[in-house]
């Protein structure tokens, strides 16, 4: 099953991440954090679907995706970033393991933040941000997606780390064992982890080493 969605507009939110606003198909539904296969409705590209997570909310009038471009791969994201309003996208069935299970710590690496965007927006709308925190790792300040929005939601419960530069308001360090022991005091709570495969695997193993139960760690590779 698939739906066709028309691109209404796109704009950069960082130097290499774009926000895409689409007409929302009437029968397209999802839970915050879930994803769908997205392809371009053009000959030779319709079957080249890749998973992306909607960053709008379920009842929004439009559908939004926030997608990082990887021009060096010469693949789908490069083609998506080149689209103009009026282009059509093919949306496949919704799927995803990263579904919200209650208050906890969200840990993201780079574009792995995207499945968390709709979750936090839904929590903000419902007034249920208490008990949640975010640890967000990036290479540089210019790579941080929606920083102001997350700081607005979470205040001092939002921690940004940079691995390649120092800057006020950020910690220059990697999310390793010493970092997690220093910043997290309760490993019995829920954890949500998303990012590159090596990032997700490493963080998940560390959390479980410190006592997090497997059932309490929800992860997805971004």
Description:
This protein is an alpha/beta fold. It is built from 5 helices and 12 strands. A 6-stranded antiparallel β-sheet has the order 4-3-6-1-2-5. A 6-stranded parallel β-sheet has the order 10-9-8-7-11-12. A hairpin with a 4-residue loop joins strand 1 (3-12) and strand 2 (17-23).
Q: Which structural class do the helices and strands define?
A: alpha/beta
Mean pLDDT: 95
Helix content: 10-25%
Shape: globular
What distance separates the N and C termini? 24 Å
Provide the CATH superfamily of the largest domain: Nucleotide-binding domain of ferredoxin-NADP reductase (FNR) module
Share of β-strand residues: 25-35%
Ranges where pLDDT stays below 50 over 5 or more residues in a row are none
Strand order, sheet with most strands: 4-3-6-1-2-5
In CATH, the topology of the largest domain is named Rossmann fold
| Rounded Rg | 17 Å
Topology, number of strands: 12
In short:
The chain is α/β, with parallel strands linked by helices and 222 residues long. It contains 5 helices and 12 strands.
């Amino acid at each position: 099953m698939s739906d066709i969605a028309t691109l209404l507009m796109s704009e950069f939110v960082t130097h290499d991440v774009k926000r895409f606003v689409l007409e929302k198909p009437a029968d397209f539904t999802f839970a915050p954090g879930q994803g769908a296969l997205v392809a371009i409705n053009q000959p030779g590209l319709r079957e080249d679907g890749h998973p992306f997570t909607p960053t709008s909310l379920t009842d929004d009038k439009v559908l939004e995706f926030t997608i990082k471009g990887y021009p060096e791969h010469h693949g789908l994201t490069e083609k998506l970033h080149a689209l103009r309003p009026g282009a059509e996208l093919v949306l496949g069935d919704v799927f995803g393991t990263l579904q919200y299970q209650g208050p906890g710590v969200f840990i993201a690496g780079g574009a792995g933040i995207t499945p968390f965007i709709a979750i936090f927006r839904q929590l903000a709308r419902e007034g249920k941000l208490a008990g949640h925190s975010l640890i967000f790792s990036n290479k540089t300040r210019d790579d941080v997606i929606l920083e102001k929005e997350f700081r607005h939601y979470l205040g001092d419960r939002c921690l940004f780390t940079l691995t390649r530069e120092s800057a006020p308001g950020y910690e220059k360090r990697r999310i390793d064992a010493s970092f997690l022991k220093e910043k997290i005091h309760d490993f019995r709570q829920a954890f949500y982890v998303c990012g590159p495969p090596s990032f997700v695997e490493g963080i998940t193993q560390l959390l479980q080493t410190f006592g997090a139960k497997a059932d309490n760690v929800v992860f997805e590779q971004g």
